[in-house]
Structure formats: structure tokens, C-alpha cells
Design brief:
The protein is globular and about 80 Å long. The strands form 5 sheets. The chain has an 8-stranded antiparallel β-sheet, with helices on one face. Strands 5-6-7-8-12-13-14 form a 7-stranded antiparallel β-sheet. The chain contains 20 helices and 27 strands. The mean pLDDT is about 95. The N and C termini lie close together (about 10 Å). A hairpin with a 5-residue loop joins strand 5 and strand 6. It is α/β, with parallel strands linked by helices. The chain folds into 3 domains: about 250 residues, Glutamine Phosphoribosylpyrophosphate, subunit 1, domain 1, CATH 3.60.20.10; about 200 residues, Rossmann fold; about 150 residues, Glucose-6-phosphate isomerase like protein, domain 1 (Rossmann fold, 3-Layer(aba) Sandwich), CATH 3.40.50. About 35% of the residues lie in helices and about 25% in strands. Bound molecules: 6-O-phosphono-alpha-D-glucopyranose (G6P). The site of 6-O-phosphono-alpha-D-glucopyranose has 15 residues, from helix 10.
């Protein structure tokens, strides 16, 4: 949901900001803009389109010199994506310039007031209202920028991460956050501002993450000064040393981030269980669970809240927790949960799953659950993210940065963490036999090498993708543990190829989707050996007799489905409870290759954003 970058220091700001925006393009990519100050002039260039379009335009339009600047890549909320609505926005005097990620909900009433006071607006954005509100406060009371930002933000309802500077005070940038992430990179006599650390990681490993309702004055030659926006109290800056490295956020020879991330899954899964799963000793160590064990063992139920792909991982966990640990589970869309007055008690454990750790609806669901006394546990990928900080305890997935908008390795690593938790609880509660427990642990440890095997179907899947790339609809069917995988497979295809796809529990097909089946309809059926195999084979027969095209995801050595299906993709054998970690691999590759063959923008599909920080 919009990426913001800023720089102040001794280097040329433009190349840093441009490269930073390219790295943040996963957050939004419908328009982009940069403002630069060269000690004399404040220059601004912005455009509808990608950062590459901005680069072309900007370099013809303005000089790129200057040691101070801010840049933005947008995912539109207020106002259609066009040149005028793109950020940065000037204030009426032309002195202030701002970039903003988030939504100012009361912008219309603020705008009316400002119009009465003589302000004019060129865009439809809430952001232009905010920068003029700041200017109005500054001028009315003859205040410095920092103070004016604070007073203005106290009048604002909504969410924001902002970065603003005054061309008359070119030694400082003022930043603030509520609900949208903002990091400050601290270098030698230079500072970087960004939505995440990727734009500045090659310059500094030292970062300050602003908390909600905090603002900071980033001034050259001074320490960063952080205040609470509401009560003006000073906060001591906590400078964190980042582990991230440049290699992790580059494509490393792959054509797309999505493909790289699909191929990273063996290592990502291993990194996720490393140090936690000690299979030979029969031990699962997870401090987030160990420190709060009674909360889990005494829980009446687990409520999972999440969105998108993370919700699908949550749905897989319903099967794992109920099957292995015998704890009742409810899986909720965070956006529904937060508004439907749910019954939550102190005996509930809420598990919030989020790759980014920033999804607004998931964050709001967490706050609601906490206010009702529930214990909230986070499963996040991004270290130090809002959800990681807001939850009582948690476990990171250690997947490494996921940049492709369509989530892949986040999904399998989330399932890995949730499996570890379920197995640990099952052992403690005695709901799993000793031998089964040890077997599960050993099999989990083998998953990375089985993912490597599953990835070998790559070329075969590319050919299947070529056969079906021109269809308008796809169906995905799965049962039990693999029903959520069917949903996830359909989501992947929709997201990046724009082909309509639906996931269904295989047995539900006859209650509706069967009417859609004809010779033009490809149906991906997950039909692994363990997991209602015979029932799914019957479903395949039903499809065949209606001439549907069958793509079966089967266990190595399968005979029955091979005879019925038009195509089969084999995966290694594993336990039913672990099978989603393998069955999802061919579905990711299928959607990837269809999108590539259709020449779609795989890493940045239209209208989507990686991190949805608005509700
Ligand atoms: C967006 C992304 C999805 C993601 C969902 C939840 O819609 O495009 O890939 O699954 O948000 O994100 P989270 O970061 O909370 O897992």
C-alpha cells in the first residue's frame, strides 16, 4: 500500500530514492513521483505508471541534483491513479512537500475548512489536504514544521506514514506513523526514510522503526528525535541492527521474484524449522509457545485471523490443530471478524497469521481480541513488523523477504510453523501417540528435500500451462488438508494471470460447480494417495464423464488417476498432514507459467499490493 523513500545527507538523493522505489514497488505501482531539493530549487516530477515510467519522465523534466529528497510509489485509495493524484504533493505556498501512505478518513471536512480559509487543491487526494493543513497550522501560529505536523496529525482520523520537508529548512525531514510502517536508516551524517529497510540496506544496517502514534524529526548533524504525537512525550530512539542482506532482496538470476521465491522454499522451510525441530531427539523448541504453554494447553479453542494466502494457511492449520492436538479451531477473515462482534473469551487463543505483519484488518482483529482478554499469538515473516509487536507472543517464519506480490514461500513456511506448534501441543496434551509423533517429526524434517523433488516437474508444468493458458475459467478441487490448497491454487492463478478460478472441496463439486464442466473447463484435482483418495478418484470420474480436462496432482507412482486424467503432476509421498507443503508447489508453478505465457506482470499484478495497510 504505497512505498515511501526519503534521503538527507551528503550523497546525491536521486539514485538512492529511485532504486529504493524500485525495491518498494511491490507495495504499490500505479503511479510514482520524486521531489528533490538542490539547495536552491525544489523540483518535483511524478507520473501515472511504474517507477520506470517515472525515471524516463523525470530525467527529461528536471535536474536530478540534490542531497535531499522524497519519493513515492502509489497504490491509489483516494483519487484515480493519474499524474495529478500521484505523490509528492506541494502545499499551496510551494514550500512544503509530502508523501503519504495510508488514508485520512476525515479529509473532506478538513478540506472544506481549508477551502474556506482560501486554500486551493489540484488533486483529489487526502494527502494534498494534509500538507495544506500542516502549512495552515505552521503559518497561523508561526510554528516550526515538526510542531505543525504534530498539531495537524492530532486533527486527523485515519492511517498514515508520512514524510515531509520544508524547502526553507533543507536540513531536516519530518516523519510520522500511525498504522503504516516507517523505518529510518541511520548512517554516518546521513539518514534514509523508507516503508521497509530494503531501500537502504546497502548503506546502513542501523534502523529505527517508528511505533504507531510516533513522529520523528530527522535532522542532519543531530540524533533522531522521536515524540509521541498525542502527548508530546519524548521517546528514546531504539536503533536496531538489521540482519537483512542485499542478496535476499534481489532476483539472483531468476526472471521474477515469484519464481525465485518458489525455488527458495526448500531452504525457507528449513530455515523455519532450524533450531526448533530436533527430530532425532523428539523435541520441538519454540520459546513463544514454551513461555506461554498454559495459555495453549488450557485454551477452549483457537481462533485464527488472517487475510489472503495467510488465511489459507490458517485453514490448513484448522485441520492440523484439530486432527493432531484436538483443539477446536475457527478460522476467520480478519476483515469480517473485526466488525461482527465476535464472542471472544479469556480462554481463547487467537493466532494471527501475516507475512508482512502489517495487514490493517489483521492488526485490527488482534487489537479487538486483546481488548476482550484473549491471548494473541503472531505468526509473521517480517521481523519487527506491527503485528509481531502487537501480539503477546509469536513465532517468525524465517522465509526471508518475499517480494513477489503473489505469496508463495510465506504460505509453506506459515504451514511449517503451525505444524510445529500443533505437534508440540499434541505431544504435551497426549493426543498423539509417541510413535506417530516421532514419525511426524522425521517426515517434517524430510519436507525440504521432497520440495526439491516436486520442483523438478517445472518443465512438465510449463507445457501444461501452455495447453491451458487461453481458457477463461479453472476449477481447483481438493479434500481435507488439501481443500485449502485448492483455494490457494485458485487464488494464485487469479492474482497473476487474471483467469477466473475457483477452489472447491472436491465433494462439493456436485452441488454447483459440476454445472460448469464441459470440454473447455480444466480442473486441477489434488488426488494424493493419503487423504480420501478413493473418494477423490470418484470425483475425477464424474468430471471425466462430463468431458472436463483433468490435471491431477498425484503421489509418485500413482496408477489410477493417471489412467483417468489428461495430465498428472507427481509429488513425493508424505503424510497427509504434511501434504499441503508439497501439493501447493505444482499449483504455484502452474499459475506462474500461465501468467508468464500470457505476458502478465507476475511480480506486480494489476490492482494488488503486497502489504495491505488500509482496510
Ligand atoms: C495481500 C497480498 C497477499 C497476502 C494478503 C495478506 O492481499 O497480495 O499475497 O496474502 O495481503 O497479507 P499478509 O502480509 O497479512 O500475509
Amino acid at each position: 500500500m504505497c512505498g515511501i523513500v526519503g534521503y538527507i545527507g551528503h550523497r546525491e538523493a536521486y539514485p538512492i530514492i529511485l532504486k529504493g522505489l524500485k525495491r518498494l514497488e511491490y507495495r504499490g505501482y500505479d503511479s510514482a513521483g520524486i521531489a528533490l531539493f538542490d539547495g536552491k530549487d525544489l523540483k518535483l516530477s511524478k507520473t501515472k505508471g511504474k517507477v520506470a515510467d517515472l525515471q524516463e519522465r523525470l530525467e527529461n523534466e528536471i535536474s536530478t541534483s540534490g542531497n535531499l529528497g522524497i519519493g513515492h510509489t502509489r497504490w491509489a485509495t483516494h483519487g484515480v491513479p493519474n499524474d495529478v493524484n500521484s505523490h509528492p504533493h506541494y502545499s499551496n505556498s510551494g514550500d512544503l512537500v509530502i508523501i503519504h501512505n495510508g488514508i485520512i478518513e476525515n479529509y473532506e471536512s478538513l478540506k472544506k475548512e481549508l477551502i474556506k480559509r482560501g486554500y486551493t487543491f489540484t488533486s483529489d487526494t487526502d494527502t494534498e489536504v494534509l500538507v495544506n493543513l500542516i502549512e495552515d497550522v505552521m503559518k497561523s501560529d508561526n510554528l516550526k514544521l515538526g510542531k505543525a505536523v504534530q498539531i495537524a496529525l492530532n486533527q486527523v482520523v485515519g492511517a498514515y506514514a508520512i514524510s515531509v520537508f520544508d524547502k526553507n529548512k533543507p536540513n531536516e525531514i519530518v516523519v510520522a506513523r500511525l498504522g503504516s510502517p516507517l523505518a529510518i536508516g541511520v548512517g554516518e551524517d546521513e539518514f534514509f526514510i523508507a516503508s521497509d529497510a530494503s531501500p537502504f540496506i546497502e548503506y546502513t544496517n542501523n534502523a529505527i522503526y517508528l511505533e504507531d502514534e510516533e513522529m520523528a524529526i530527522v535532522r542532519l548533524g543531530k540524533k533522531v528525535k522521536i515524540r509521541k504525537i498525542k502527548d508530546d512525550s519524548l521517546v528514546a530512539p531504539y536503533i536496531q541492527e538489521l540482519q537483512l542482506n542485499l542478496e535476499q532482496i534481489e532476483k539472483g538470476g531468476y526472471e521474477h521474484f515469484m519464481l525465485k521465491e518458489i525455488y527458495e522454499q526448500p531452504n525457507a522451510i528449513k530455515d523455519t524449522y532450524r533450531g526448533r525441530l530436533l527430530a532425532s531427539q523428539g523435541i520441538i523448541k519454540m520459546s513463544g509457545i514454551d513461555d506461554h504453554l498454559e495459555k495453549f494447553t488450557n485454551a477452549d479453542r483457537i481462533i485464527v485471523v488472517a487475510c489472503g494466502t495467510s488465511w489459507h494457511a490458517g485453514l490448513v492449520s484448522e485441520y492440523i490443530f484439530e486432527d493432531l492436538a484436538r483443539i477446536p479451531v475457527e478460522v476467520e477473515y480478519a476483515s469480517e471478524f473485526r466488525y461482527r462482534n465476535p464472542i471472544i473469551t479469556e480462554n481463547d487463543v487467537v493466532i494471527a497469521i501475516s507475512q508482512s505483519g502489517e495487514t490493517a484488518d489483521t492488526l485490527a482483529a488482534i487489537k479487538l481480541a486483546k481488548s476482550k482478554g484473549a491471548f494473541v499469538f503472531g505468526v509473521c515473516n517480517v521481523v519487527g513488523s506491527s503485528i509481531a509487536r502487537e501480539t503477546h507472543a509469536g513465532a517468525y517464519t524465517h522465509a526471508g523477504p518475499e517480494i513477489g506480490v503473489a505469496s508463495t514461500k510465506a504460505f509453506t513456511t506459515q504451514i511449517t510453523v503451525l505444524t510445529l506448534i500443533a505437534l508440540k501441543l499434541a505431544k504435551i496434551k497426549g493426543t498423539i501417540s509417541n510413535s506417530d509423533y516421532h514419525y511426524q517429526l522425521q517426515e517434517l524434517e524430510l519436507i525440504p528435500e521432497k520440495v526439491v523433488e516436486a520442483l523438478k516437474a517445472d518443465d512438465h508444468i510449463k507445457k501444461i500451462a501452455d495447453t491451458y493458458k487461453s481458457v477463461s475459467n479453472f476449477l481447483y478441487l481438493g479434500r481435507g488438508y488439501n481443500f485449502p490448497v485448492a483455494l490457494e491454487g485458485a487464488l494464485k492463478l487469479k492474482e497473476i494471470s487474471y483467469i477466473h478460478a475457483e477452489g472447491y472441496p472436491a465433494a462439493e463439486m456436485k452441488h454447483g460447480p459440476i454445472a460448469l464442466i464441459d470440454e473447455n473447463m480444466p480442473i486441477v484435482v489434488i488426488a494424493t494417495k493419503k487423504g480420501h483418495y478413493e473418494k477423490v478418484v470418484s470425483n475425477i470420474q464424474e468430471i471425466k464423464s462430463r468431458k472436463g480436462k483433468i490435471i491431477g496432482i498425484v503421489t509418485e507412482g500413482d496408477v489410477q488417476v493417471k489412467e483417468l486424467a489428461d495430465h498428472v503432476i507427481e509429488i513425493p509421498e508424505t503424510l497427509e498432514s504434511l501434504s499441503p507443503l508439497l501439493t501447493t508447489i505444482p499449483l504455484q508453478l502452474l499459475s506462474y507459467y500461465i501468467a508468464v505465457l500470457l505476458d502478465k506482470n507476475v511480480d506486480q499484478p494489476r490492482n494488488l499490493a503486497k502489504s495491505v495497510t488500509v482496510e
